[in-house]
Amino acid sequence: MREKVNDDKSTMDEYDYKPFEAAKKRLDLNDLLDRAKVEKKTQRKNNILIFSAAASAVVVCYLVLSL
After folding, report:
1. Contact partners, residue 12, CB within 8 Å, separation at least 6
2. With 20 labelled, which of 12, 34, 54, 59 sits at a CA distance of 20 to 30 A?
């Protein structure tokens, strides 16, 4: 009647549990720098998009009020 603890895979899947494994790949500084560079580009694109949307809204409001 005893159940094996390791056979219960549902909790592992439910909580996205991944057992600790020995580091197969070493941490590469170039990968981290590339990831930071890509993240910086996406942040810059998002900031430009938000700024242009806000500027467009201001221009549209000004045009509506000036008519």
Report:
1. 19
2. 34
CA geometry: angle at 17 spanning 2 and 39, to 5°? 180
Helix-then-strand count for the chain, H and E: 2, 0
Helices (H), the chain: 10-14, 29-66
pTM of the model: 0.54
The token duo for 56 is 């467009």
Query: pLDDT exceeding 90 applies to what percent of the chain?
Result: 55
Question: Residue 58: what pLDDT?
Answer: 97
